[in-house]
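> example.struct
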């Protein structure tokens, strides 16, 4: 349901922009509104991480998968972005920057719209929303045919929130803990890695 709301909001924003229904003052201050909203979102994520004592203890005691899976996800995702640049009109830097959102559609879209323009920001938003949708649909199949940790890489940064309940249901509690750690690491690295491209 949330995915539908997000996609609808993008189309509504595009419609309002083309039809000039919104005031010029609101449109000119949209960047400031977006940045303030992003800061509030990051604060709430940090608060949620700090508020969950059990997750913090698990994060400290995590096994080797807590490092291997995020590292593999980062390498695979960025390499996938590079491959996409070979078959599209996007430059390698643009494509890898889009992929460096790791599924965090709101932050990556805002950062890339600011760094590389609204077109790239919109592509980042949609590609990361699609990543989340694909992860949610494919988790049961990946567990069955590949193994319990494979959906974690597919979910990317969303494994600490949106895809976490589905991972726990189909992959088990241990995979869910690793998924949470994976999501925290990737979410922390998005604002650091993405601007490098």
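> example.seq
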């Amino acid at each position: 349901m949330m995915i539908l709301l997000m996609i609808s909001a993008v189309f509504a924003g595009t419609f309002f922009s083309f039809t000039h229904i919104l005031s010029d003052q609101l449109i000119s201050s949209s960047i400031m509104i977006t940045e303030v909203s992003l800061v509030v979102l990051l604060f709430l994520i940090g608060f949620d991480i700090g508020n969950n004592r059990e997750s913090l203890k698990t994060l400290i005691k995590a096994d080797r998968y807590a490092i291997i899976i995020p590292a593999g996800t980062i390498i695979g995702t960025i390499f996938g972005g590079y491959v996409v640049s070979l078959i599209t009109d996007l430059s390698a830097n643009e494509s890898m920057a889009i992929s460096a959102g790791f599924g965090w559609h709101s932050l990556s879209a805002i950062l890339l719209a600011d760094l590389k323009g609204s077109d790239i920001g919109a592509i980042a938003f949609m590609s990361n929303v699609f990543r989340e949708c694909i992860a949610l649909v494919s988790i049961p199949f990946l567990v069955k045919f590949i193994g319990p940790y494979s959906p974690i890489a597919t979910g990317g940064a969303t494994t600490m929130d949106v895809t976490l309940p589905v991972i726990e249901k189909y992959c088990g509690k241990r995979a869910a803990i690793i998924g949470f750690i994976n999501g925290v690491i990737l979410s922390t690295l998005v604002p650091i890695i993405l601007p490098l491209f």
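> remarks
Residues 37-196 form one domain.
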